[in-house]
Write a structure and sequence with these properties.
single chain, 294 residues, alpha/beta, Rossmann fold, 2 domains, five-stranded parallel sheet, 9 helices, 12 strands, Bact_iron-sidero_bind, transport, ABC_transptr_periplasmic_BD
């Protein structure tokens, strides 16, 4: 009888995650699940974060078939038993600080790890977008799946296209934000988001919000957002962000909306060549359109 080969992966909390055989039943935080899907891995269950509700946020799901994969819950309502009921061989999550399993209460994560291996990939400001992508690729590779080689060429072409779009005499200003309502907005600090840093590295101009308490976001009024004079706005479309329709009572938002190219933005997008090629191409198209209108 053939023996199974032990499986192991060094995760981004500095832990060696081990299993008796290569895991096949994977439960994942929704961003991680969407990333694994892009690598050809189908999770058996998904979970959300404290910002999510009782159903999966489609904005975070990438190309996941949400009607076919069980959503196990989110936040404080997520019990270890709900995760274990999916009979996972492995739980895959993300970490922002290199210590905590994002999306799980500390007690839940501890109880879970006593019964099933948990692997995390760091997606916070300490890593470049390419480094995060490579870490997910390494995890997927250890699970027996790799991205098709043509996707590497597509990504190279998308990066070249973005550099060409941002390299002209007119450099449109790109602002990423998450609407909190008609009275306030969370402006993303570009240096703390790997995808925004990647845009800057490829030549996009991302003005820095005013200094303040927030590490990742500067929470201000819409007048401060308008003062950044954006030409392209990457607007958070996750379920916890306010909808555009709710913002139009504010004159500053109306002025922004009237002059900018609006581009849907998922700060927790899948971390894959496929997703990044699409992101760079969409931003390049928006930058070109804004430059042509200037």
């Amino acid at each position: 009888m053939e023996q199974s080969t032990p499986w192991e992966f060094s995760d981004d909390r500095g832990r060696l995650v081990v299993a008796g055989a290569r895991p096949e039943r994977i439960v994942a935080y929704i961003q991680a699940g969407a990333t694994l899907w892009d690598h050809g891995i189908r999770p058996v269950g998904l979970f959300g974060s404290q910002h999510d509700g009782v159903t999966a946020d489609p904005a975070k799901a990438g190309e996941l078939p949400l009607t076919e994969i069980r959503y196990l819950g989110s936040g404080t309502a997520l019990h270890p038993d709900a995760l274990l009921a999916a009979r996972p061989d492995l739980v895959v999550a993300v970490t922002y600080d290199g210590e905590q399993v994002y999306g799980l209460e500390a007690k839940t994560a501890q109880e879970l790890e006593e019964k099933v291996p948990v692997a995390t990939v760091a997606v916070g400001p300490g890593r470049s977008l390419a480094e995060v992508r490579e870490r997910f690729a390494a995890l997927a590779g250890s699970l027996g799946h790799g991205e098709p080689l043509p996707l590497a060429k597509e990504l190279d072409a998308a990066e070249d296209g973005l550099r060409q779009a941002t390299g002209g005499p007119v450099r449109p200003r790109v602002v990423a934000l998450s609407p909190a309502g008609p009275d306030k907005v969370h402006l993303a600090r570009p240096g703390t988001w790997p995808d925004l840093r990647a845009l800057a590295e490829h030549g996009a101009e991302l003005p820095e919000p005013a200094a303040g308490a927030g590490a990742n976001w500067s929470t201000v009024g819409w007048a401060e957002a308008a003062a950044l004079a954006p030409d392209v706005v990457l607007i958070d479309v996750r379920a916890n962000a306010a909808r555009v329709e709710a913002l139009r009572t504010d004159e500053n938002w109306r002025a922004i909306e009237a002059r900018v190219r609006l581009l849907p933005w998922n700060p927790e997008a899948p971390v894959s060549r496929r997703a990044h090629s699409r992101f760079f191409t969409e931003v390049a198209d928006a930058v070109r359109a804004a430059a042509a209108r200037a």
